[in-house]
Input
Amino acid sequence: MEPILDFLGSIPWWGWILIFLLLVALRDIFFQRAHTISHNFPVVGHLRYWLESIGPEMRQYFVANNREELPFNRIERGWIYASAKKENNYEGFGTERDIYAHQHIFVKNAMMAYQMPQGHPNIDNPYFLPCAKVIGGYNKRRKPFRPASIINISAMSFGSLSAAAVTAMNQGVEKCDAYHNTGEGGLSPYHKQGGDVIFHFGTGYFGVRSRDGNFSMDKLKILVDENPAIKGVEIKLSQGAKPGKGGVLPGAKITHEIAEIRGVEVGKDVLSPSTHKAFSSIPELLELIESIAEETGLPVGIKGAIGKLDQWEELADLMKKSGKGPDFITIDGGEGGTGAAPPSFADHVSLPWTYGFSSVYKVFADRGLTERIVFIGSGKLGFPAKAAMAFAMGVDCINVAREAMMSIGCIQAQVCHTNRCPAGVATQSKWLQKGIDVPLKSDRLAQYFKTFRKEFLEITHAAGYEHPCQFTMNDIQLNVDHDYLSSDLEAIYRYKKTQVPFESMQNLYDCVHLGGKPVLKKTS
Ligand SMILES: Cc1cc2nc3c(=O)[nH]c(=O)nc-3n(C[C@H](O)[C@H](O)[C@H](O)COP(=O)(O)O)c2cc1C
Output
């Protein structure tokens, strides 16, 4: 034994490296057939795989210019990070964007900006920007709701996001009077931190699921009765990143906690089918909306990504005929995010937000129904100028998902589907989510929303208005090369936005249905 140990001890450090490389080469040539490159080019072939794996980071840090990356470029991410930290989010020396570029958005400023009269609510609270419409007001629901913030958190479940991230988000919305959409995974304890909640369910009916995987009204009623923070219910028809795509939640991921929240069995695969069991036609969908509203008293809405319009037209016709219908409609853009989706879906199925929203809004405007509905938009709208365009097209609120994630530390690593999110936001790894300082991150989310609202109000005032609901299609121009060819939204999308009834900001503040707990004093 001793001579062998002596021999091994006499091998220099570089000898060990050579032995290791020799073993790798033997494995590459004789024992593995899965990778052709490392078989044909033993040892050095591994460099290719390694460089490929660090390529995205290298491009992000060193190569891509400030406006190049997708889904969100460095300038957009930087604006969210700085706004969330209440740091200087200005840029010096003028814009670095090519403002002659195709599709560039111009907000038409007034010759003289809107001047706030003495005692105006926004003098004391420059962040106060509630929704101009009351959700459920038209349909006379028992518990109508006016969102106290025009920017809110879009559907993202506990499961796709970590417990720490969901907690930080819910505490954050409580601090800035916004609402938090639960996403498809049910209402978790992390959603119950004090913020207003919109309960969202899809084809899996998680949290309101009967034993046979159907929708259970009894469970929904109990959930709503026990949780007064729930201000509305959203039925998911589809989302922009994967419309019409079901999913499987693998049994291995179903812990006791997730099983309890979602109402499924521990360790057993759960299927989210691509279609709903609770309805299979537009009249049945309308019936479900009405019965949920009747049983819970809450406003009820639907969320969809847009492709064909025939069923939307059928819904609008039926709403006109019956006088009933959803209290809110969330339109998601094809550019929307997801925890995980096949690229063929994310890249190609459903229209981008502006095309989808304009087509659907027109369907309801043509039938004189827009005043009944609160329109919510989502799809990279969490930037004030983009929101101005969305409001000019007819939205009443926006929902943000990935922008909210970034405000609490997401670095756009784009690995949500792997459970290895380095920022601890989109992972179930206890170790990775320990990095999230919940109180700090909740402040950041609240500050991002507040900064957004303040800047959006400033743009609104520059355009001569008091509230963004007053934006018309003629206030925004999209660049299509020469100024003569640039067109305002009305000419491009060929409809007129219905005027939103609006008296004053004070009037919105005094509304008994106002959510959150906004106060009109100077807030930091
Ligand atoms: C991690 C993650 C999870 C999501 N989960 C859901 C979901 O459960 N239900 C849903 O309708 N949309 C879901 N979405 C889509 C978002 O709610 C939103 O519609 C979309 O990302 C567009 O908003 P954004 O551009 O601000 O991210 C998810 C998005 C992300 C990034």
Summary: The first strand starts at residue 105 and ends at 107.
